[in-house]
Structure formats: C-alpha cells, structure tokens
Design goal:
This protein is about 25% helix and about 25% strand. By secondary structure, the chain is of the alpha+beta class. The site of uracil (URA) has 8 residues, from helix 8.
Amino acid sequence: MKKSSHPILKKPVKQEKKMRLDRILANSGLGSRKDVKKLIKNARISLDGQILTDPGRKIDEDQKDLLCLDNEPIRVQEWLYYLMHKPAGYLTAMNQTEGMGTATLGDLVPDFFFHKKIVPVGRLDKDTTGLLLFTNDGILHHRLLSPKYKIPRTYEVSVKILDHCFNEDDVKAVALGMDIGSGESSGPGELTILESDRARLTLYEGKYHEVKRIMEALGKKVVHLHRLSYGPIRLGNEKTGQIRLLEPVEVTSMFLACGLDDISIPLN
Ligand code: URA
C-alpha cells in the first residue's frame, strides 16, 4: 500500500517555553482541567520526584517528560485512541439532543472526551454490543471508516431462523456479496458457522444496518449482535461499559492497517 504522511508529522512544533501544569495534564488526556486539578489536590502528580500542589505552576518545556502520575511517567499526547466495550441500550451519539431522551454514549464517556473532541469511529446500533473505537485523530478516523482501506470488522451474530439454519450456501452468498435492499449490495465478507443459529461474520465496509440486512437476505432475524474486533483491535476482558486507552502497539497496528506506515506513535 502507498505510504502517506500524517499531519502529526507536518504540525509545527509549538515554541511555547512554559505551560501551566493543569493544561499540560489535560492535554495529555488525563481528564478535564477539573479532573486533573483533583489529581493535583490528591498529591498524585510529581515532577522529578517532588509532589506538585499548584495547578497553575509553570512547567518548562524540557521538564514535561519528568512529570509522573502515581510515580509513573505521563505520556503527553494530543491525539488519543480509546476502545469501549459498548453496552446495549445506548445510541452511538455524543449528545442528549441526538438521543432525544434515550441514553447515548455521551452519558458513558468521561468529560475530557468532549474537551478533546474524541468521538466514536462509526456507529453501532442501540442494541448492538461490543468493540467501539474512539479517537480525535481525523485522518485515522476517516481511514478506519473508508471502504478504500477495507478494514475488517468482525461480529458474532445470533439469529432467529425465519427460513433455514446457517448453511454452506449462506457462506458462499456472503463471500460473493448480496443484495441487501434499497439498491445496495454488501461487499464480499466471510461467514463462519458456529451453530445452526449463530455465526461469526467479517465485513470490510460499514453500510447502514449491514449485518442485519445481510441476515434478513439470508432468511434470518438478528437477535443479538456483538462486535469482536475492528481492524487489528480486538475486545479482550474489558467489562461491558469499560473504556480504555489503546496501548502504543495497538495504535501503531491501526496506523499500519490504514496505510499510515511512515509514522510511529504520535507522542509529543
Ligand atoms: N451492522 C448492523 O446491522 N448493526 C450494527 O450495529 C453494526 C453493523
């Protein structure tokens, strides 16, 4: 795949010499200004081994690397990458207006997601559970969703059988791509039969209600849909509703999957 550059590489380095402690911490993704003030108040932030108590303390650019939370160095990052184990019952939307009174993911994410403009990558239906990625990295966000990059999404689906149990003809039909109504067809996918009414499905694009429409075309109705992975990122032991920062190795693997292979981890 052709190499592409990422704006992280082109971004001019800020020449600011000193910055307020609370601003540095909020920019690193630890939380909103309010959240990080709490960390400071609780004596959890140190600089070169010394506990810091003043959120307004000016920190030199070259001292930023010595900041620790609970004695662990803080990685100061501007672009942030998270996963959520989405629970059922939440709309993939960040604000209440979009939800019109229904719970949204905006109710589950910490406040700093709003300050840092961290948003979900694509949508899962209200009743769908499983892996949902979040980022404020516009380039990666676009590529993860674009059909051009053929990023695999794997789901486990349980169905009510309206016509016939999962069979080899279903596997072939999914592999070829199917008419899913409204003049659309699904791209080629992979169906692995687990039981007569349960299967694993991998798709390389994300059309509206695509899994449900494929299942309908196969004579089945989805009763439970759960996303196991998105590109190289898999759901592990995260509890329902849990959100966690992706590990640097996971971020690098997403960059590679999206053809952004000339960049390492975007640390400031
Ligand atoms: N396809 C669907 O039909 N629903 C989802 O939530 C995700 C993919």
